[in-house]
Specification:
Bound molecules: phosphoenolpyruvate, magnesium ion
Strand content: 5-15%
Structural class: alpha/beta
Largest sheet: 8 strands, parallel
Number of strands: 8
Shape: globular
Radius of gyration: 20 Å
Helix content: 40-55%
Distance between the termini: 21 Å
Protein name: phosphoenolpyruvate--protein phosphotransferase
Order of helices and strands: HEHEHHEHHEHEHEHHHEHEHHH
Organism: Microvirga makkahensis
Number of helices: 15
Strand order of the largest sheet: 7-6-5-4-3-2-1-8
Family: Belongs to the PEP-utilizing enzyme family.
Subcellular location: Cytoplasm
Length: 325
């Protein structure tokens, strides 16, 4: 199997009916980067910058951060990399930071909330990213954004660092794109506004599932209770794909579901043309899409989503679709 997937490495990622699909990798450490060449992925769609912070014994300095980002770019070569700013708090705890006693850490002081309340941390990281990306394209996205205002404030921090660096004679990235992770359901109800502001949207389906269904993603008792292929989740995802298309905003997905062939198939059927996943998933997902008539699937899913009873899962129907075409 693994060998079969290896052979697909250099096969273009195009569906049977000729639609180009971008498959990228999720990564978090330098050791993940060789997977780009091994899998033939188009780039890094999610670089989890908090990993460096989580494995360190003390807070990584600005130059430690810049060194990592430069090394990531060097390894990635021509391939694009999307860095996510620090996503700490919740389940991601730093050994050298005093843990906050919170009743509900997943709903607590985390990710961009910390970044905006302690802008020194975010500023240092953004500056390290901008410096490391001098002369090449850079994509940055912010985790756990719940409002357009949070995105605007994060963007203002980036703009400020950019002016600071250019004022001090530093070379800037050749192209800078700022995106938002869609993981908090409130963004589903301000999609047009966020699409108008952000250069791209990346759905964090792990957290989106958690918050949409109110199921703790770390709690085995409830985590698998609801199906990502259920009508409400698919409708939520469809809203994003449709608004992104109308607004001309790039939409991608980097949660775990993007790496499961059946779920990935459904995402393509909803209109997504870009997914980011763990390295081991690239082969299986590519094998799926090479055999897929995405036009036919789109019509099928639209029809099913209009007719599905409330709360039903489309899983059996999608399995049937996959097996019979
Ligand atoms: C997600 O929430 O889907 C995601 C990609 O981010 P993380 O798993 O790091 O929270
Ligand atoms: Mg997340």
């Amino acid at each position: 199997r693994q060998e079969q997937y290896q052979k697909l490495r250099n096969v273009p990622s195009v569906t049977k009916d000729g639609v180009d699909i971008v498959l990228q990798l999720n990564a978090g450490l330098l050791v993940d980067l060789p997977h780009l060449a091994e899998t033939g992925a188009a780039g890094v769609g999610l670089f989890r910058t908090e990993l460096q912070f989580m494995i360190a014994e003390r807070m990584p300095s600005a130059s430690d951060q810049q060194a990592l980002y430069s090394a990531v770019f060097a390894e990635a070569g021509e391939r694009p990399v999307t860095f996510r700013t620090l996503d700490i708090g919740g389940d991601k705890i730093l050994p050298y930071m005093q843990a906050l006693e919170e009743e509900n850490p997943a709903l607590g002081w985390r990710a961009i909330r910390i970044g905006l309340d302690r802008p020194g941390l975010l500023r240092a990281q953004v500056r390290a990213l901008l410096k490391a990306a001098a002369g090449r394209p850079l994509k940055i996205m912010f985790p756990m954004v719940a409002t357009c205002d949070e995105f605007e404030r994060a963007r203002a921090i980036v703009e400020r660092e950019k002016s600071y660096l250019s004022h001090h004679g530093h070379a800037l990235p050749s192209d800078l794109r700022l995106g938002v992770m869609l993981e908090v359901p409130s963004l589903l109800f301000q999609l047009k506004e966020i699409c108008d502001r952000a250069d791209f949207i990346s759905i964090g389906s792990n957290d989106l599932m958690q918050f949409l269904f109110a199921i703790d993603r770390e709690n085995r008792r409830v985590a698998d209770r609801f199906d990502p292929l259920s009508t409400p989740m698919l409708r939520a995802l469809r809203l994003v794909a449709e608004q992104a298309r109308v607004s001309g905003c790039q939409a991608t997905l980097c949660g775990e579901i993007g790496g499961r062939p059946l779920e990935a198939m459904a995402l393509l059927g909803l209109g997504f043309r870009s997914l980011s996943m763990s390295p081991a998933s690239i082969g299986p997902v590519k094998a799926m899409l090479l055999a897929l008539d995405v036009g036919e699937l789109e019509a099928f899913i639209q029809e099913e989503l209009e007719n599905a009873g409330s709360g039903d899962t489309l899983r059996p129907k999608l399995v049937q679709f996959a097996e019979t075409r």
